[in-house]
Design brief:
Layout lengths: L11 E5 L6 H12 L1 E5 L26 E2 L12 H17 L3 E5 L3 H8 L10 H14 L1 H11 L1 H6 L5 H14 L3 H4 L8 H4 L1 E7 L2 H17 L2 H10 L15 H7 L5 H24 L4 E5 L5 H14 L3
Parallel strand pairs: 1-4, 1-5, 2-3, 2-4, 5-6
Length: 318
């Protein structure tokens, strides 16, 4: 346990919201105004060589603000929310030791949950078991895995969307590797890190129609910018099609296109639909997170940036 746990925890900000809502723009403005550093909270941006559909902020657009936990994991690795929470905690402590403000920025709600409510110790991934489940999912569909989990662990199945196959599959793996349901093991969770107690959660909520138009436009831009070629290169280098990196929204349908399972046009349109559905699920997720401060609009909006900074005056000690 870090010695920093014995100290009074400092402030911590999280800027979250649906994909394409302008979180990065708002995060950079807050970092410049509040002497902050950004810690990525997006499960795709952690991966190296996964670029076009990730919305990683280019170095020249970061305006000198340090960014952490971006581009540091091989796409061959299945990096987990527990891994992120451990790495993020260490960086939060380092940033605060230097009297700067850590700002989490991203839309992966499970990462944030892992920091606020740490997971129980779970077994290392059994690669053979994962391959078998991957084959079953590809053959019979994601709903089949959810039906299997309902039989093995009804409580966990009730908490997960049927199409949230990474988490459904992990719950199945835990059951087969430990002989016990994941829901029965939650009592073994460690205590939350003290930093999480001081978390100020900022949630962006842009107008739905404008958000969907932005998602559709970005998807078309990604394909035009060489997304298919990027995925083809990763597959040729041996990155598994079912890896966490290539299973992400924006990449999954490209893999299917390259496997001959759909046309390019179908891949584009299905990706738009997938990402719109994902944005809706993100908003649902963050409504369940306690203590959120909701702001109507995109993060690039000057009105939103001003309103957030005014709110933080009362939340962050000077």
């Amino acid at each position: 346990m870090s010695a920093d746990r014995d100290k009074q925890p400092g402030p911590l900000i999280a800027v979250v919201g649906p994909t394409a809502s302008g979180k990065s723009a708002l995060g950079i403005e807050l970092a410049l105004a509040l002497n902050g550093e950004i810690i990525n909270c997006d499960s795709v941006q952690v991966y190296q060589d996964i670029q076009i559909a990730t919305a990683k902020v280019p170095l020249e657009e970061r305006r000198g603000v340090p960014h952490h936990l971006i581009d540091f994991v091989s796409p061959h690795v299945n990096y987990t929310a527990g891994d992120w929470a451990r790495d993020a905690t260490a960086i939060i402590e380092d940033v605060q030791r230097r009297n700067r403000l850590p700002i989490l920025v991203g839309g992966t709600g499970l990462y944030l949950r892992a920091l606020r409510n740490p997971f129980f110790p779970s077994p290392q991934t059994n690669e053979e078991l994962r391959r078998r489940l991957n084959r079953s999912r590809e053959r019979r569909g994601v709903e089949h895995l959810h039906r299997l989990l309902r039989r093995l662990d009804p409580d966990s199945a009730g908490e997960l969307y049927p199409r949230d196959w990474p988490r459904v599959q992990r719950a199945i793996e835990v059951y087969f590797q430990t002989g016990r349901a994941m829901s029965q093991q939650k009592a073994r969770r460690p205590q939350p890190h003290p930093q999480a107690e001081n978390l100020c959660l900022i949630v962006l909520n842009p107008p739905r129609e404008a958000l969907y138009q932005r998602i559709n436009g970005r998807t078309e831009m990604h394909f035009a910018a060489g997304l298919v070629e990027e995925v083809s290169t990763l597959l040729a280098r041996g990155v598994p099609p079912a890896s966490n990196a290539l299973g992400a929204h924006g990449y999954r349908r490209v893999v299917e296109y390259l496997q001959g399972k759909r046309t390019r046009e179908s891949a584009v349109e299905q990706t738009k639909l997938d990402v719109r559905h994902y944005a809706k699920r993100q908003l649902t997720w963050f409504r369940r997170e306690p203590g959120g401060h909701w702001f109507e609009g995109f993060g690039e909006s000057e009105a939103v940036q001003t309103a957030v900074q005014r709110m933080l005056v009362d939340q962050i000690p000077s």
